[in-house]
Amino acid sequence: MIITPSLHLLWSNEEGRRLLTIDRDLGEVGGRLSFAQRTGVFAFAAFLENLGDEPRAWVLARRDGGGDCLIIRAVRIALGEAQAVILAFSDTAGSRRLWADFGPALDLTSAETTLLKRLVDGATVTEAAQDLGVSLETARTHVKRAYAKLGVSSREEMFAKISPFRLS
To answer: Any transmembrane segments, and where (predicted)?
Structure first.
């Protein structure tokens, strides 16, 4: 899918059009990309405004509360004199999550690696702590140490760093 920075739809393949037609959280209104939650429009527009030359990912939490997300990968391009953004979508709902063993390559401990995978899969730090059988404070310490090792300061940056290791 290709959009303008102001969310106007320029082009979409058949799968993108299908997504905009059937998705509960994302759609098209008046030729523009829209979100079921109004705050999503503003948050995504802000994400696009800060999009530089490097591809980045934005995560839309599903409203059903099941922990699934729509991952929107974005890269800025030039169309002649105009700016545009290419979007690619990945829905975590019902997907089997398969990861490469990225921990050793990024100097992460097993606990840090497992915690980051859970966060990318949509869990909160509290949920991830419960899954790991550790306290919330221990989980937060793992997150801080992992972020420092990755050189990131936000979940979005962390996801962009480890998403190449997510195989499905």
So the answer is: none
